Amino acid sequence: MNEFLNQDLIEGVNGANFYTQTRATLETHTVPTSENIKPIYVNLKFKDTPINFKDLKTPKQIVELVGNTGAKLSLIKDESCDGMLLISDIETKQALNPLISSSKQYLYEKGFTEDEIQDMLQENDADESEIVPFVTALIKEEYAQQKFSQNTVNNSWENIKPYVRCLGDALGVDAIYALSQSTAKNWSKAVLKRVFKTVAKKMYGPIGVLIFTIEFARCAS
User: Fold this and answer.
1) For 103-133, how does the pLDDT look when each residue is reduced to its tens digit (9 = 90+)?
2) Are 66 and 5 in contact (CB under 8 A)?
């Protein structure tokens, strides 16, 4: 994931607050008409120090922005936002390919075939990149269960709790709750498919996965 976070995938566009400290419309900028380019709108919670969004290039920089300024990311258009991030679906998915491959390998080990993975994606009208947050949730829940079963470290829950909470914030508590109802070794394909359906509803393709990665990395850091 660190390699993905450090890739240049973002073109930042300033809001008027970079110049005036007031929230107004974005600087003159034409969003490309290509359906592969998606804008992410940014609203800053703390506005004392203007941010030059043009300096933002990597997901890691957005993680730091969110952590330092209380920024909120949204796919919903907001002309009064403090800045905008333009991101290519295609480039983002290409950057996610190593994570997609490792996520598939995890599902193979859980008994899924490639055809079953593709059927699951098609049933949920989901992009292949959306298995990344799904598998992230499975791995973290499995790790949490292993720590609890060992029951050797008194503060094990305190070490695990931030990751579980962050996954709940990013994916929704329903997905995490469903996984917690049985041990990882007893997860059936039917249960995992239901969890994926919940996750897929929140992702919106590679750009949604990018936002998940940013928010999870910020929360769990």
Assistant:
1) 999 999 999 999 999 999 999 999 999 999 8
2) no
The two three-digit tokens of residue 80, written as one number: 């009064």
Strand ranges across the sheet with 72-74: 10-14, 83-88, 37-43, 72-74
With the CA atoms of 112, 166, 220 and 42 taken in that order, what torsion angle do they form, in degrees rounded to the nearest 10? 110
DSSP 8-state code for residue 69: H
Q: Position 13: which residue type?
A: V
pTM value? 0.78
Distance between CA 9 and CA 81 in Å, rounded? 21
DSSP 161: H
The stretch 157-161 carries a mean pLDDT of: 52
The helix/strand/coil state of 56 is: coil
Q: How far apart are CA 185 and CA 134, in angstroms?
A: 17
How far is the first Cα of the chain from the last one, in angstroms, to the nearest whole number? 13
55: left (phi over 0), alpha (psi -120 to 50) or beta: alpha
